[in-house]
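Troubleshooting log. The previous structure file for this entry was overwritten by mistake, so regenerating from the original sequence record. Sequence copied from the archived sheet and checked twice against the printout by T.R.
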Amino acid sequence: MLKGENISFSYNQAGAEEKAVLKNISFEIREGDFIGLIGSSGSGKTTFVKHLNGLLKATSGTITYNGQNIYEKGYKLSNLRKEVGLVFQYPEHQLFGSTVLKDTMYGPRNLGMTDEEAEESAKSSLKLVGVDESYYYASPMELSGGQKRCVAIAGVLAMKPKILVLDEPAAGLDPETKFMIFDLIRRIQTERNIAIVLVSHHMEDVAQFANRVWVLHDGTLKMDDTPANVFAKVDQLDEMGIGVPQITQLTYELMKSGMPLPHAAISVDEAAKMLTHLLRKGANA
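Regenerated output below.
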């Protein structure tokens, strides 16, 4: 659906040379994708995702949505932002409506929906993220941190995007609420049939949910592969200052010490199966 070719981006700094932040990045987001975007701090992740719905314009290169160049003269970026929803870190800080429902309706109204259409879309999205009807006419400020995060996500979903980009959606949340948010993201993808791009420092979550992983380092897209293939490159990721799931690190160290595992595991279940197979094989030898 969304494709970028040779995207580069530089910030203009007064009295100084331009600072290159993104360098010659090419990518594709396909229908049904769940992409995990990882990279060390300062690698360019947030700058990159701002290009996905036109908040920033590439210094060079092209981005197309359904085959149409978004940088062509006359292209309406408002149309793109309806199709590609972006949820920033701590999105609850952007809640401002007098009620939960009015706040969730703001985006759809801004895109040209009638009040009736906006209300219908808002209520559908609030239901999807698990916000009870009893909160619709309450102030967003009265909600818990997790509820606020859900309302903020609902506000983007109400615009009915085909691609949802989430920048550290679980940042600052306790473990229970974090689990709830990731369960919600999976439900959103299933029920709305949309593509997800997840920016995260939590490698366990990326390994569990993503079908593809993008590795961004120093403004360059270094890897675009399955979680298993990406996280198998433990040493390369370490050189880039990027961690791997804890179970991956453990099984990798066991392999280095001589244990004949087929590969480093990316989940506890996978590690358990490999170790059980190894123990049974040893018992039968």
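The two ends are 52 Å apart (CA to CA). Archived copy saved in two places this time.
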